[in-house]
Amino acid sequence: MSVLEIRNLHAAVEDREILKGVNLTLRTGEIHALMGPNGSGKSTLAYVIAGHPHYEVTEGDILLDGESILDLEPDERCKKGIFLAFQYPVAVPGVSVANFLRTAVSNVRGYTSRPVDAEGRSGVIGSNLMPMREFRKELNEKMKEFNVDPSFARRYLNDGFSGGEKKRTEVLQMAMLQPKFAILDESDSGLDIDALRVVADGINKLATPDRGFLLITHYQRILNYVKPHYVSIFYDGRIVMTGGPEVAHMLEEKGYSWVEREFGEAVTA
Amino acid sequence: MSVFVKETESIAQSVQGFSEETVRAHSAARNEPEWMLEFRLNAWRQFEQMPWPQPTDESWRRTRLTGFDLNHFKPLAVATGQVEKGELSKFLQDELNEMDSAASMVFEDSGLRNRILNTNLDEHGVIFTDLQRAVLEYPELVRKYFMTEAVKPDLNKFTALHAALWDTGAFVYVPAKARVTLPLQVILNQCTPGVGGYHHTLVVTEEGAEVTVVDDLLGAKDGLQASVVELILGAGSVVRYMNLQDFEHSAWNFLTGRAVMSRDADLRWIQVSWGSRLTKAFLDVDLMGPGGHAELLGIYFPTGEQHIDHQTLQLHRAPHCFSDLLFNGALKDRSRSVYMGVIKVFPGAQKTDAYQRNGNLILDPTARADSIPGLEIQADDVRCTHGATVAQVEEEYVFYLMARGLSRPQAERMIVQGFFQAVLDRVPVESVVHKLESVIERKIGG
Ligand SMILES: Nc1ncnc2c1ncn2[C@@H]1O[C@H](COP(=O)(O)OP(=O)(O)OP(=O)(O)O)[C@@H](O)[C@H]1O
Ligand SMILES: [Mg+2]
Questions:
Q1: Fewer CB within 10 A of the end CB, N or C, for chain A?
Q2: Distance of CA A38 from the midpoint of ligand 2 (Å)
Q3: Any idea which of B11-15, B74-78, B203-207, B425-429 has the lowest mean pLDDT?
């Protein structure tokens, strides 16, 4: 079992404090839903876990199996098994999904750090990739399994993708990279019913005992498909309440204004 | 042939410098007819009368000829005669082997070294020969098209010099309805250092013809190259032209190219500028007849102290024409690039559809790109857009790719490759695409 532990995390962007003491423990095998109003800092938390250079951690720590990951570059965190599905995936012009994913997968699975390639030829470290045929085969299988049209392999990353296509491609990438901990930042927003089901099915397929999920969402909707073990309410840069699935229902019923009435005071105090 | 060679050698040794005598000797060594000698001498006189470009000329404001002196070069290289393919240097053989071509010609210094026909071009009346020979064998065609229609000798100082001293180059003539599906490959290797070279490309297509031509330009160490490209497209003909310039970084390179397009002609011109210490390239497409379709695509990637300047003209003289220009360049170290372009729509050229985009990716803060797009529109029912960008590698792209496990260098490499992809996607010859990709790779790396 692995543990991702967020301890009293404070983070700022351009000198403005956004995260104000986040505490959260995520174990493999767990699905933890995080709900909170717009602008409360959910994406900031996701970015800080993934190591976005724009955000400065001012206090606290993030530990993966007891070791701090704060000094690691984003790619090193990824290689340790942390995956972030972006709320707004950027379009990278001219970089094809297949080309980029082959390098990503090769790094994560250690091909690029080997001194010899798959055929045993020695080469420059960093230039060896997963064999093309093997990669193609796996990508094709995963595309089928996760309902991504095969034509997307040759398309440029998120370039001209619809909202739903972007989110599905994020799930596909997660499936290829096989992370230990996946932070899914609103992977359900902007999806129609069918696309929501596809994304939810994808998450369920990947929700094995050796993997943990932090599911950031605004809606109870996805939780009808993906059953969380815990639901936390995020408000003004911290978690103000944690419970079981009933918390999501309560939130749906009472709305964020209730959260504000309930926890607004404490936060400003 | 070997007789020519001896003569050229002795003449090259006896004549020093750029002079009328050099022009005469050059023409004589090639047994040229009187009309070509006259043509050269006329051009020489024009060259002598024309002033050198001044920093006050709009075209030369950002590209100075500081350090350029004609007298530093020997005016002409010696031709060394033809050899079998197997006797060419290894890298030239590789260049030939990489491309699946209909036919190829290799030039070294001032003469043809090797010519291979992989397909029977004669059968369809297609001419693919070196210009030197074309002057003797197809004088009426050469007289009609050589620097008469597309690029005239007095267009600028370098075209005049070129007209007086032109040495290597291909003549491609494709008669009506003939189609050459595989590319015609032309390689120039200017191997002797410190000489002047004047490579010419003349492509003429008749109605409904189709052809693909690739010019591969190499060498020119410490030298000068003043080349001219003329593409003359007959009605409804289709031309794919690639000019792949990979000269030594000590070469001075001046290129003037123009495509003249009749009704419904279809052109795609790929301009690649990898090498040279300085390049000034004038590239024009002239849409003379209605329904023409022109794509002008360029890539450049200066490093070190290289200076690369492209100046383009999209001339819409006739209605219902389409032109699309895209030049993308990345810059490293202390390099510089200049892009200047004008879309000119003449009165009466209604329903013109014209685009012009220039993108620059600055990889080092010491590099600099200037981009000056322009429109001159004299018709009212047209659609024209232009735009220029000068930007650095987008940090959000880098983060996204790193979050998926790519190292920073891998991410940056991929983003730079991706930046060129919009042009590479439109390069019609696969072996050329691979070659360009590997040069980009090399340029990013070193
Ligand atoms: N790079 C940044 N620069 C400046 N301000 C930022 C930046 N990133 C986040 N913020 C600010 O931090 C606050 C929290 O933003 P964040 O995106 O984390 O909220 P969120 O909870 O994900 O909201 P939403 O539900 O709308 O996605 C907002 O006020 C936002 O404007
Ligand atoms: Mg968010």
A1: C
A2: 7
A3: B11-15
SS (H, E, C) chain A: CCEEEEEEEEEEECCEEEEEEEEEEEECCCEEEEECCCCCCHHHHHHHHHCCCCCEEEEEEEEECCEECCCCCHHHHHHCCEEEECCCCCCCCCCEHHHHHHHHHHHHCCHHHCCECCCCCECCCCCCCCCHHHHHHHHHHHHHHCCCCHHHHCCECCCCCCHHHHHHHHHHHHHHHCCCEEEEECCCCCCCHHHHHHHHHHHHHHCCCCCEEEEEECCCHHHHCCCCCEEEEEECCEEEEEECCHHHHHHHHHHHHHHHHHHHHHHHC
The 10s digit of each residue's pLDDT in B120-170 is 998 899 999 999 999 999 999 999 999 999 999 999 999 999 999 999 999
Contacts of A83 in chain B (CB under 8 A): 403
User: For residue A174, how far is its CA from the centre of ligand 1 (angstroms)?
Assistant: 24
| pLDDT at B5 > cutoff 60 | no
* Interval B249-268: pLDDT, tens: 999 999 999 999 999 999 99
Cα A126 to the chain's mean position, in Å?
Answer: 26
- How big is the A-B interface in CB pairs under 8 Å? 84
Distance CA B443, CA B424 (A): 16
| CA pair distance B186, B200, nearest whole angstrom | 11
Mutate to test the pocket of ligand 1, among A44, A52, A256 (most ligand atoms within 8 A of CB): A44
Q: In what order do the strands lie in the sheet with A181-185?
A: A82-85, A181-185, A212-217, A31-35, A230-235, A238-243
Q: Where do the domains of chain A lie?
A: 3-91+180-268, 92-157
Asked casually if ipTM beats, i.e. exceeds, 0.85, the reply is yes
For B392: left if phi > 0, alpha if psi spans -120 to 50, otherwise beta; the answer is beta
What is the distance, to the nearest Å, from the Cα of residue A169 to the centroid of all Cα atoms in its chain? 13
SS3 B349: coil
pLDDT category, B55, cuts 50, 70, 90? very high
- Check CB contact of B399 with chain A, cutoff 8 Å: yes
B402 alpha carbon – ligand 2 mean position (Å): 20
pTM: 0.91
Q: What is the pairing mode between strands A67-68 and A56-64?
A: antiparallel
Residue A186 has φ and ψ, to the nearest 5°, of 50, 45
The CATH number of the domain covering residues in A3-91+180-268: 3.40.50.300
Domain ranges of chain B: 2-288, 394-446
Average pLDDT of chain B to the nearest whole number: 95
What averages of pLDDT result for each successive group of 10 residues across chain A (269 residues)?
Answer: 97 96 97 95 98 97 98 97 97 95 95 68 65 95 94 95 93 97 94 90 95 94 93 95 90 84 59
